[in-house]
Specification:
By secondary structure, the chain is an alpha+beta fold. It has 5 helices and 22 strands. The protein has 4 domains: 38 residues; 149 residues, no CATH class; 89 residues, no CATH class; 105 residues, no CATH class. Strands 2, 3, 4, 17, 18, 19 and 20 form a 7-stranded mixed sheet that branches. Strands 6-13-9-8-14-15 form a 6-stranded antiparallel beta barrel.
Amino acid sequence: MPQQIYDIKPPEKKKEIEIAEKKKRSPRFFIGLLLSLLVVFGVYYFFSYRVEIELWPQTEGVEGENSLSVSISDFEDVDVLEAAIFETDFLEERRTFQATGTEDSEARARGTVIIENRHWDQNQPLVEGTRFRSTDGVIFRSTDGIIVPGRSLRGGEVVPGTVEVEVVADQPGEEYNIEPTEFNLPGLQGAPSYDGVTAYSEESMFGGAIGERTVVTEEDLERARNEIVEALFTEGRSILDSRIEEGFLLGRDSQYAYRIEEENVGGRAGEALEEFTVEIRAHIEVITVREEDLEEFLTDSILDLADFNWESDLVGDESVYMDSISFNYSFSDINWSAGEATLELEFAGEVYSDVSSLRLLEAVSGISRRDAEELLNNQDFIREANVRFRPFGIGNIPEDRDRVRINLNF
């Protein structure tokens, strides 16, 4: 078989050729890259180039007081702000309290009885000190003379005449602190009216004692009521604050109120008790306004008090720096049934004069940055002015107003 011979070029020569070709292309490559970068930069500069004019206006601090009527129905009047009233469902609280009063003297129990006259059609007179004997034989006496009305006939039925009278125990002692019971009148015994003129009590007699004893005081009762009302008030405010949507003015005690619907007190002032209970059922309500409406009113009130006399053609409208507004408020003369009140306000804020953008752009168009800054810093309503080219630049402010931005700073 004949031998085949292959012609193979030496590797070194090929490498030399590749290196030569690379050296030959190198200058064009970098020139092209440079041109591309210049084009990209030019496009970026053209579309991002702008001038920013930063202005810090002069401000005037204003303080004042004002009052405003608020109503849930008459807010169409320009001098009345729209109000809203929210209320909770019924809240209930029952607590037991310790009595703190003491007495160190003999005391007679007292209370009231209701006398019934089922015997006579005429009035039955009873003198002061008339005795009333309980079913257990305990004697009480009336503190005043009294006339018991005669019985009457209504719808074919006999209706006894009744009257209520205060009574006091015949002797001091705790044994006279009896539960509700029936009484007869020993002074009528043997008379026809004995069985027809009787009495009964609906509440326990209280206050009977000999020696030192613990009694309920008026201060105890007031403290107990206030404690429960405060607890209900706090609970009701928390409920209302969580339920009412954002944007309403809340937070002052003067705009909340409670209405007690039911109150039960297990004790009376002067009653000999170690402890007593108080139960209150009430609901809490609040009158409020929208913060947006109040902010508008405050803005107008602050502007009314401002007094600017700027001498510049570049001045625009007077405005309030909204972040500077602060105020305190309270509600008074609240008529909950009518949904009306007076809103008392103390407020403060800073007022400035805006710039007329159109006249400012006309004034700085085509002039240098330095001239523009000098012009603006000489305006009496401007505290400071800076002119910047973005991203950088030299020359004059462009006449193209779309490339000029005016920013107000405080």
